[in-house]
Design a protein that fits this description.
By secondary structure, this protein is mainly alpha-helical. The protein has one domain. 67% of the residues lie in helices and 3% in strands. The chain is built from seven helices and two strands, in the order H-H-H-E-E-H-H-H-H. Strands 1-2 form a two-stranded antiparallel sheet. It starts with 6 loop residues before the first helix and ends with a helix.
Length: 175
């Protein structure tokens, strides 16, 4: 009988080995919101860890797969915080992020809650495009890394990224 690590120990090992990467991802994600930041990159990684610790599917993940899960957890943490701040009973305002540079190449600020809704809509139309955006925007993964993770070519990722950016740009301009 072998002593296989339990899922929680695997999570701890993955977080320990990728902590700097996760903190860098969190920092880049938060840079888009520098003026209104209400959480530090370290705290974001810690909240991400708490979300991931509750997950059941942490067994035998490769580092890139783990970063993909962490990207979704980061997105969820930020959206949850934006919802809390925007709650009417608290008198809060919606959290806004700038989508520029390696993110979505939009100049204007975009409400994080609207982005989340738009990504859910995009997922209904094209799940892969939604994942590409999530992995690029919230995970900071390269097209090559995304291609390996989604089992498609880098060229396909580049194409999906371009189409998703255009769709999100139109979707977020509405209203």
């Amino acid at each position: 009988m072998t002593d296989r690590p339990r899922p929680r120990e695997q999570l701890d090992d993955l977080v320990a080995s990728l902590y700097t990467t996760l903190r860098d991802i969190a920092g880049r994600t938060l840079e888009r919101d520098a003026g209104r930041r209400s959480i530090s990159p370290t705290d974001l990684v810690h909240e991400c860890y708490v979300k991931l610790a509750r997950a059941k599917a942490m067994k035998d993940l490769r580092p890139t797969e783990f970063v993909a899960l962490a990207s979704r957890a980061i997105r969820n943490v930020l959206v949850d915080r934006a919802r809390e701040k925007g709650a009417v009973k608290r008198g809060g305002r919606l959290k806004r992020v700038t989508l520029n540079g390696a993110s979505l190449a939009l100049d204007e600020e975009v409400d994080l809650l609207r982005l989340d809704v738009a990504l859910h809509k995009l997922a209904l139309l094209d799940e892969r495009q939604s994942r590409v955006v999530e992995l690029r925007f919230f995970g900071g993964l390269s097209h090559e890394e995304i291609g390996r993770l989604l089992k498609c070519s880098e060229r396909t990722v580049t194409s999906e990224w371009s189409m998703a950016k255009a769709w999100l740009h139109r979707e977020l301009e509405r209203e």
